[in-house]
Fold this protein.
Amino acid sequence: MKTFVVQQNDSEQRIDRFLKKMLPALPTSLLYKAIRKKQIKINRKRCTGETRLKTGDVITIFLPDDCLQTVSTTGEKKAAQGNAASLFVCYEDENLLILYKPVGMLVHSDAKHTDNCLVNHLQAYLQQKGIYHPELEQSFAPAICNRLDRNTEGLVIAAKNAAALREINSLIRENRIQKTYLCILTAIPHKPEATLHAYHWKDTKTNTVTISDHPKNGYREICTSYRVLQQNDSLCLTEITLHTGRTHQIRAHMAHIGAPLVGDQKYGNRQRNQQLHCTHQLLCAYRLQFEPEPDSCLAYLQHRVFTTPIPDFVKQFFPQFS
């Protein structure tokens, strides 16, 4: 038998999802079988996999010990591995942080790069401040809510607690956080500003996407707005607003209309990139605007706008811009 007491950062999630995180040695089929046979109970009462947890709930599990290895006993839960000094904090309150991610830094670690990772730096920073105690948490860790490509710079949002994480993810899904980017294009679009609609398909094997002007099986709709700010010979400083958030959406969509980003090695003009000595896309997530509902735990951020300083690549190619 094993017992869990639900903490504040564990509440409001489904019991099946909580137990999958807490008991990695427990097969999913056995988890749901145990729920059906009343071998897993909340406050000594029957539950379903969809039952939402509340702070203070007591979960009791009547299963063999070899199925009940927790995250800590399997060695999967570790203290933060990042470097707090590598974190650039633009804004912080009791619920969230707005961080600046530089070019070359991953948001999450991968098989090849595990050290220079934004989420690890975030957790190390909060651990150093005494806000995050991984040894006391059961299922929660501070998290990054929106992703940027490794070679895209700019603002990302980080949640410090589970309630903020749920709310930020909900705002992103409902398009209540407006994300605006600055980029430089290698060609000038036909119109000075427009809202583009198209369809997006991702090849997971090559991590590249294809854009279509017409619906196709497996393609998902995308919407991208752009506004030309300045022109300099054949280069074009452009502001882009995302209305959907698909993989490589800006890079692939602008390339699709014949105006790829300077430095883009996947979708861009390689000859032009070489002429300009650019080895990564000139793209910065420079502005975030929050529009939560009045009853949101983040209602105090309504209409708040966060921006980065003008990126260095803009100063290089468009020094007159301000």
In short: The radius of gyration is 23 Å. The first strand starts at residue 2 and ends at 5.
